[in-house]
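hey
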């Protein structure tokens, strides 16, 4: 054989070097592949375990939340003076079942299948099962077990007004049962009787459909009782300890993100293995090709990481930045404004009337509206601006580097206009508007999030001023918010101390000039601020719910004064009390009115309840049912401020009313403005044709009185006759006017 040339030897040496390099590289790649596979499997197991732990937590939370709701509900009904009066010793079936106090409403409103009352002798004296009044002693047969120990625990806790609850097995399904002893609830008008208390029990049975629905509320799929032993042996599951020591297992389908990830990466690992074989068998060219493939795999991993980061910082529905990214961009905008000596603007946008879309159509349509709103907003703002979704139907816009308020106002007007345009979703034409709050800043704020709070205050003011408009934040709003907070606290103290006074403005018959009634008007003298107008504190009370105890005090005081007048031989046919829609819609409102009348020995016709047309804006069916029940009782119903609302004429056909009060804005010009006079005459004529009586409020001149009398208005009220009077002055006024010959 001829000797090898130097180039040939060099090539052989190079080839050997490549082979050795390939072996080392192959070994390294195999080791990396093996470690990567182990890491991926560990990650998959960790993700699956995390998902299982999260769903287990949410299942526990769902059952706990359902139990707390049951306990709260039974507490509301057991620790209630009226329930104590009608259910403690003996059961008033009419009060409990026929009037929906502890009957069908528990099933229809809350879905509680069982309502039972156990008396002091442990006898089942009242049973309602699935909205049906059942025979006594039907509880044990329906439950299939005794709950005497639970009843005794409820009695032991009666003095502390505490509730006991447990899980029981009912027809193979879990059921939540709560027990509470009846108490007066602190009602000073109800006498507490000696002896053991009767006990109220509520049963919430979780059948298959309810378990599924309960789970879905917390993002749990197919929450169920195990269908067989195989299903019961699988994870995840929890065991509910029951009252009868017969545990009940719950199963559900848990997401397996780790397994899904393994399935997703399997093709990549299979390809990697083929590349590994290819590298070990072929030459450097194959190695370079494998390197290029590895680069592509690395780029794909980077893309996935970027996608995960995008999801972590963006809203899943609209794709807009979420709260965490919004806060970061807001801090950056404030810093840049400080450094550059420029301004930024923050807008908070809340949709008006969005909730009815979800309620009346579907959440799917509501989601599509939110997506379209986000798209329209992005089309308006500048490239460097931020549009973020805070959650629900609330959005934030950050406008860095704005020159002046005019530029910001122009953007706000475009946003309001485009959001208000119709939305065609699934062939359904929908409309929403928006309320918008704006704040500008030079970036010098202690906490950038203060700008969002200030924009929120301005947005709330925009809603107060009619919605579908924009409002700029001012320091006055901060002062106003502080004033409202202070007023709310002082109002609560006044409610606790009952430091109010009731004044009365007489209502005069247009024929005869006698006092035919009076409107009860609440007055509050603050210890440091003096007299505070109801126009200032009533809206606050309606917002905070304090209007309920306020109205109860007014009703009780007005009825007490009316009783006192009757006992003194002073004839006052009726007294009128203003009622808010919030109080009217309370489940026990009818019982409250009946209790007030019974307490003071009054006839229903001696009480007038004044409502506004807004009572039908929300929960119209419930409001109409309540008004019809009041009408059947004989209570007089009056529409206050008639003529200033919308669709007023329509309400006259719907509401079971006795009287309307023409708003003072029409009365003030009735003797000088032909339009006001024509409107008043038309209202009076129309009302009389509908057999309704008419009161004109705000009568201040003799000319107004004469014209209203000529138009046959029934009753007159205003400063011409008397300002609102204290009870003692009002008593003197009635005696003087009604004893004066007509």
């Amino acid at each position: 054989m001829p000797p090898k040339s130097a180039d040939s030897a060099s090539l052989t040496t190079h080839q050997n070097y490549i082979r050795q390099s390939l072996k080392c590289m192959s070994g390294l790649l195999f080791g990396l592949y093996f470690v990567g596979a182990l890491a991926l499997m560990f990650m998959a197991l960790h993700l699956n375990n995390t998902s299982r732990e999260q769903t287990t937590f949410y299942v526990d939370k769902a059952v706990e939340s359902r139990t707390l709701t049951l306990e709260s509900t039974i507490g509301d009904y057991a620790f209630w003076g009226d329930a104590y009066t009608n259910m403690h010793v003996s059961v008033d079936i009419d009060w409990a079942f026929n009037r929906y106090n502890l009957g069908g409403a528990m099933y229809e409103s809350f879905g509680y299948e069982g309502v039972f009352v156990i008396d002091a002798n442990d006898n089942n004296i009242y049973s309602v099962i699935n909205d049906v009044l059942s025979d006594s002693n039907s509880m044990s047969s329906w439950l299939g077990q005794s709950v005497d120990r639970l009843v005794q625990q409820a009695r032991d806790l009666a003095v502390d007004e505490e509730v006991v609850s447990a899980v029981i097995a009912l027809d193979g399904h879990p059921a939540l049962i709560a027990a509470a002893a009846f108490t007066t609830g602190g009602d000073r008008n109800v006498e507490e009787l000696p002896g053991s208390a009767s006990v109220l029990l509520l049963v919430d049975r979780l059948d298959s459909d309810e378990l599924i629905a309960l789970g879905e509320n917390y993002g749990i799929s197919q929450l169920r009782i195990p269908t067989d032993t195989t299903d019961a042996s699988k994870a995840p599951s929890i065991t509910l300890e029951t009252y009868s020591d017969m545990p009940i297992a719950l199963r559900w389908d848990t997401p397996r993100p780790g397994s899904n990830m393994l399935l997703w990466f399997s093709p990549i690992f299979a390809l990697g293995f083929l590349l590994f074989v290819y590298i070990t068998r072929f030459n450097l060219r194959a190695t370079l090709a494998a390197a290029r493939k590895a680069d592509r795999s690395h780029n794909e991993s980077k893309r996935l990481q970027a996608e995960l980061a995008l999801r972590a910082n963006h809203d899943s529905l609209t794709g807009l930045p979420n709260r965490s990214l919004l806060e970061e961009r807001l801090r950056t905008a404030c810093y840049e404004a400080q450094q550059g000596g420029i301004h930024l603007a923050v807008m908070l946008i809340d949709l008006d009337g969005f909730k009815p879309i979800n309620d009346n159509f579907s959440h799917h349509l509501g989601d599509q509206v939110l997506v379209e709103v986000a798209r329209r907003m992005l089309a308006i703002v500048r490239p460097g601006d931020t549009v973020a979704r805070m959650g629900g139907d609330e959005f934030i816009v950050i406008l860095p580097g704005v020159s002046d308020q005019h530029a910001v106002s122009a953007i706000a007007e475009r946003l309001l206009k485009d959001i208000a345009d119709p939305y065609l979703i699934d062939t359904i034409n929908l409309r929403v508007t928006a309320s918008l709050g704006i704040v500008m800043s030079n970036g010098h704020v202690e906490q950038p999030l203060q700008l969002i709070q200030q924009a929120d205050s301005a947005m709330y003011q925009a809603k107060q001023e009619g919605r579908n408009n924009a409002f700029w934040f001012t320091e006055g709003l901060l002062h106003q918010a502080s004033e409202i907070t202070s007023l709310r606290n002082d109002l609560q103290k006044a409610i606790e101390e009952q430091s109010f006074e009731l004044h009365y403005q007489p209502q005069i018959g247009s024929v005869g000039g006698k006092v035919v009634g009076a409107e009860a008007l609440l007055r509050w003298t603050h210890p440091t601020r003096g007299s505070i107008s109801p126009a200032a504190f009533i809206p606050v009370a309606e917002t905070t719910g304090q209007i309920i105890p306020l109205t109860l005090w007014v009703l009780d005081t007005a009825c007490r004064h009316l009783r006192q007048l009757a006992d003194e031989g002073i004839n006052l046919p009726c007294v009128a009390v203003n009622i808010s829609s919030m109080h009217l819609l309370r489940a026990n409102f009818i019982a409250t009115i009946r209790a007030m009348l019974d307490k003071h020995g009054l006839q229903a016709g001696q009480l007038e309840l004044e409502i506004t047309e807004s009572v039908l804006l929300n929960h119209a069916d419930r409001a109409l049912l309540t008004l019809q029940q009041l009408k059947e009782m004989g209570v007089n119903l009056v529409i206050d401020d008639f003529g200033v609302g919308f669709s007023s004429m329509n309400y006259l056909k719907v509401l079971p009313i006795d009287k309307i009060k023409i708003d003072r804005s029409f009365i003030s010009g009735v003797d000088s403005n032909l339009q006001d006079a024509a409107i008043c005459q038309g209202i009076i004529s129309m009302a009389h044709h509908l057999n309704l009586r008419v009161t004109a409020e705000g009568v201040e001149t003799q000319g107004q009185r004469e014209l209203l009398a000529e138009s046959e208005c029934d009753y007159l009220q205003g400063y011409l006759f008397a300002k609102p009077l204290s009870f003692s002055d009002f008593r003197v006024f009635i005696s003087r006017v009604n004893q004066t010959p007509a």
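The chain has a mean pLDDT of 85. The first strand starts at residue 114 and ends at 118.
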